[in-house]
Structures are given as C-alpha cells and as structure tokens.
What does this fold into?
Amino acid sequence: MWRALAIVAVVVLWTGAAAADPPCKPSARVTGERSVADAIGAALRERGIEVVAEAAGPDPAFVGAACRRVSAEVATGGHRIMVWITDGEGHRAERLTEDVPAAATVIESWARRDLVDPLLDERSAIPIGTIGAASAASAANAASAAQLDRAAAPEPPHYLLAGGVDAGVSGDGGLWTGAHAQACGRIGRICLGGVLRYALDLEQSGDTKLLGTERSALELAATAELPVRRGGFAITPGLGLGLSSVTARNPAEGETEQAAAAFARAQLAAGYALARGWSLRAELSLAVAPLARERLGEADGIDRQLAASPRLQAWLGLGVAYGGP
It folds into this structure.
C-alpha cells in the first residue's frame, strides 16, 4: 500500500512540474548592421537580457506569457541609431535613439516583463464594461510608448561651438585667407551668438598688389541662426551685424594705418553629423560695408595710398562643430 501511495505521489508531482511554465530569461534577437547589433547585444547581456543568435532559426517560445522575447532590427543614421522592434504578440514600434546604451534601453524595456507589466496592469483599474477591453489595452500601450519615447529621445544640445579655416575674396579684388571661431546658444528655435575672424590679404591681386600694401583684418559679429535638421544633415541660414578693423601697412616706407567699418552679414551653412555631438560644417557668407573707406592716403596726411577696408567681402569656410541648436 505504501509503495502504491509513493508511486501516485511521484506521478502527481511530475505531472505538476511538467504542466508548469519553465523558467526563462527575457531575451531579444538583434539584427541589422553587424557592428551596431553586436555592440547592442553586448550591452543587453550586461543587463541580464539573453541575446538570441540571428542564425538560430524560429524560436518556438517566441510567443507566450511565460517568456517575453522581442526582435529588434537596428541601423545607423548619421550619429544616431534607428531601432525597429517587434514583440511576440505582433506589436511593432520604431524609435530613434542617440547611441548604443539608449538603443539597448529601448529593447530592454520591451523584453523585460517587470518593466512593461506594471503599465499593462493599469487595465485592472479601468472599467472594462464601460470602455471595453480593446480600449484598456490601447491605453496601456500608449503609456508604454510614452515611457519608451522619453528613454529614446534625449534632449538636443542647446549650444554650438565651431571653428575652421576660411578663403575669401573682396570687392577691391583682394584674395584672403583666415580662420574663425563661433559660439551660440539656443533661444527657442534660434541660436544667438557671435563669430570672431582673423584674416590676411594674400597681396596677389587687387588694391594690395596695385598699391604695394600689406593688410590684415579682425572681425567680430553678432549672429542669429535658424537651423533646419533632416536626419544627420543640417542647413542653417543666418544673419549678423559686426565691426571690422583693418590694419594696412606700406612696407617700403614703414607706415601703418588702421581703418574700421561696420558691416552686415548673411550666411548659409551646411553640416553633417559625425558622432557624439561632432559634425562637419561648411559655410558661405557675404558681408556688406557700404560706409567703409577702401583707400587711405593724401587727405589723411599719408604720402602714399594704402588699401583699407573693402565694402564687399565673400567667405567660404570649412571646419568642425560640437553640439548643435
């Protein structure tokens, strides 16, 4: 009799264990650009998420209440990462993330039931008889999507720091080279700041060659820019007002004079995002100084005329930028 009871107990326990859902870890299958997928997979493993190999084939446990497993496809766009997610119930989402850790956070939020289930459990507080089960599920999915959006969309930078080299031409025929530094901070959609440029006339043409003048210029301008971004590209029109100081010298006689002029500036810049806030930046600008004195001499007590401040000047600049309004 005792032997029969023991056999019955073993059978009951074995049957109950077989009927129970086997334990499993949250898991994800990450596909797409190999280098990015591998980096995200490593980040997920550090967070306790099992990463299913792409070549593993269909997973029979991909759908089910006991194990939550998701599929994610990743691709880079500029210095950001696009993530397309599908869970075992067929729900799909698309997220634009800043970097590998942010992309891993989004995938982890879908794979771990302990993160998502508290949002889904809100259905119990909604009167099903009033709005229906479908409405309750929609409300829970909307709450989950809002949480993922906050994790995947970091606040964009509020400033820009840029610098580069310049080549220019002036209305009196001069050819110039120079360098500039720029900084601005965002107020609404507009970035307000300033540009400092040092320039040197190459003395290869125009008034400097004709009059035998050496000249350099220092410019400072206040600027306002309105960037327009499309993925990793940015087009930035802008305006500026500033003051230039030109130092002109006659090397034969050793005379040095200075001339100042106010100018208005229009610009169009183009940028391409690289990584971690850095971008390449090209800029075309035109400065107009209608009251500038293009030549100094004679009436100023100078024996020989000197090339001074040009009234029209165009610049092409190439450089790098950090941040971005």
Summary: Residues 17 and 310 are 90 Å apart (CA to CA). The mean pLDDT is 78. The longest helix spans residues 133-152.
